[in-house]
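Predicting holo structure, adenosine-5'-triphosphate bound.
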Amino acid sequence: MTSLGLAWRTARRYRARTLLAVAGVAIIGALLFDMLLLSRGLLASFADLLDSEGFDVRVIASEGLPAMRVPIPGSADLADRIRGMPSVRDVALIRMERARVRRGADRPRVVTLVGRTQSGVGPWTVVRGASLSYGPVGSARASGERDSASLPSERGDCPVVIGRNLATAFALEPGSSLDVTATPAGIASALPSVACRVVGLVDFGFAGVDEYAVATTMDAFEAIVAEPSHGEADLILVASRAESGGGAAAARAIAGLRPDLRVYSNEDVVAQFNRNGFAYFRQISFVLSSLTMSFAFLLVATLLTVSINQRLGEIAALRALGIGRRRIAAMLLWESALLVGAGALLALPLGGVLALLLDHILRQMPGLPERLHFFVFEPRALVIHVVLFVITAAAAAAYPVWLTSRLPIAATLRREVVG
Amino acid sequence: MPASLVVEARGVSRVFPMSAGPVTALRDVTLHVAAGEYVAIAGPSGCGKSTLLHLVGCVDTPSSGSILFEHRDVAALSEAARSRIRLTRIGFVFQRFFLLPMLTAAENIELPQAEAGVAPAARRARTRALLEYVELVDRADHLPSQLSGGEMQRIAIARALANNPVLLVADEPTGELDETTGEHIADLFDRVHADGTAILVVTHNPTLAIRASRRLAMKSGSLVA
Ligand SMILES: Nc1ncnc2c1ncn2[C@@H]1O[C@H](COP(=O)(O)OP(=O)(O)OP(=O)(O)O)[C@@H](O)[C@H]1O
Ligand SMILES: [Mg+2]
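Done. Tokens:
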């Protein structure tokens, strides 16, 4: 009979103790697992969201969020130079404006209107229909080369992609039409509305669940806001080539071109997020995880200690029979490992279900990007979970092991008979 | 010193330091147990019988004097070395049996053999032979909770004999048993003795004590008679 075998038999014999310990560790473990998913979930989800846009470098005029809409002087020219860089695959100029969308007699909705120059990718993912198309490459290239006086109404075209929530609100699908009116802040005069045609339903990564967004070509955007860009965008998005150093390398090169601008790779954005708001999250989940682990430790250590105290006579007899200290320590360690291991294993499905539930609740917060999650599984969470529980099992066995290793055999045997 | 001595206590004392003052459990005790000898110790409660047995059985060391087990000074050995002697040279039988409750009778007998590194096949054969010896082959797969007191003590004796010890030490082995069952245990001890194993038994039970080849009496921490 090996030490593991002895531990297994002991666990089966003291069934109530085993069930208590396993159930306790499973519940505590589920909390710990969720804390681990939460401790980096938002960050991982945020990084995933950035990557899903298809671009990995963003250029803005000054510090702060792109939503501040400070135009970038000379964007068109800069875009051309960026496009010419070997590490760059794609470039898009972005402008944003508040607008109102109306369809038939329905109540109009306030939307964020996005204008984007020709680009092979998002910043969105197509759910149904098509993305914005510009015809054959070369007919309408970078915004700076476009004849900005030519209005889309003359071309007769305002293709838009819309978020799924707007599609649901207006019962829109690819091929439907809607009217878009720009409502820039601080401009009192009403602008004429422009008839647009839905070409696709998309997910805007960063749009909140309750926020409507519409994107169109830069030509159509300028027609809607009745104001040419003069080659000034609010934001320049760049897709790098992975083989030539990825976003970080491209960002460095672009910053070299224009030191007056802020250039962020996705990694920079995530790192900034990590340093700022997210640090609180990590600290809180560190404190809560530590507390959780000490509960698991106390539970198992207490149950083991109590059960060892009931078995001291047995153990003293084993020692009198020449069963070594090591064997008894190994048996106790295995006992602890079995209780903690079974609990920690059960904790994974339990924690998974709990995480889904909690994520669902948290994501009902208004204004959150639809694809942002709080609880995100990463393999490292599993590794940390396992490592923490191995430590807990060892720590919980430490006191009982110490207790039995210095057990006075003769006195214990005597006490068992006299007592 | 004759080579046939298994264990020898030379002027042994054992004092337990207590907060209310030291308790002297043994006072200058000298005792020899020769190979194959059967010695019984009797005496009133608290006279130090168990204390002496624990010293002879290498689970405790004297405050003064020395215990020589097969000519080796026990106090000079490490705990690991004493543990090894207990495992391979001594068999312990307790008043309360102390079988592991989660192991079957056969597994309880196998445990000390496994610890001593006996190969599984040899272990099973030896266990089978011991079960036959104590006439409990049909209870091999029973848990201690499914055995009577006398059966548990017979399994405990088989366990004590598992590694072929030179000395069997027993502290009140019939203390928890009725008279008839006690007599069966006494018969079993006779067979163990006849097979050449030395026995040192502490008992109040005259039926058991009478079988010994040498009977010693203890009083207030000293051997008398
Ligand atoms: N570990 C110990 N700590 C303190 N005192 C002890 C210890 N072991 C024994 N004693 C004391 O030593 C004396 C002898 O004890 P021991 O157990 O050897 O007696 P005994 O002859 O076996 O008695 P019984 O027949 O009741 O079992 C007693 O006074 C007892 O209180
Ligand atoms: Mg006693």
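Residues 3-49+277-418 of chain A form one domain.
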